[in-house]
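Z., the sequence and structure:
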Amino acid sequence: MRTSTRSRRGFSLVEIITALTILAIIGAAMTKMMLAQTRGFQYDSGGRRSRSTARSAMNIMITDLRMTQDNGGLTYVDATNHRRVDVRVPVGIGIVCTVSGSDLIMALTPVDSFQLASIKFGGYAVRNGTTGVYTYVSGGAMSSADVNQCHGNGVYADTVPIGGRTGAVVQVSGAPPAGTVRGSMAMVWQTVRYSFDSSKAFPGRAGLYRIVTGSAAADTNELVAPFSWNARFKYYTTMSRSGSTVDDAARTSSPADLNTVRGLQIYLAAEASDTVPGYTGPKKSPLTTAVFFKNTRIQ
């Protein structure tokens, strides 16, 4: 009995080449789509990182700069590149209890005890009751004092609890300004420098530094980076009122008299830390913010 067999036929060369060509086209399209999706995600992620850099810098700086007084609070500005400002930042506010020729004792309202203990004391200032202007006394030292020096004179500013914190009675050295009397408003301060300088983490780009005068070199920390070298400060000078018009335009030139500065405009030219393939340069998210000093006066 004969058994018939059916012949088996494979794919021809043309069919194989055609199939491979179709697969190659589909694969190339899928690869291109995946690369586009990846680059898009990286680009969006770079935008988020650069925006986070700008916002972090803004939040850090506002805390100090808002507390700066509008007369004597600003001590230095970079007149060339406008990338540095030095400000006297109050770290404790209180009331004068006793006055002598070489020092005074004040009761500070509640303040974080760690912050008070860790400051780099720059000096103290006393407010003139008539003009409202603080007179700054630089240098000297601060130490704890007997609370009876204040309580015995009827000053109890240190005893009012706020948020679970208590105040302190301190003695500060340095001849008090003329007119200082018991009951005068006073404060202790430290000098803080904000600057856009060469980044240690991102060579070739700028970083934001916060340096407290008197700190060790090891405490010179780069707070936030990276920024482009367009980051800078502008200055709001004395605001004058004429009818209903207020001159509040930010100046690009450094004022001759720093006591005329009422606030700062800060251009935070933030960038992403990396460059996305297919794009020119890192993602940028520039942010402009303004900070006006406390007790800003309109003349």
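The mean pLDDT is 82. The radius of gyration is 31 Å.

Let me know what you think.
H.
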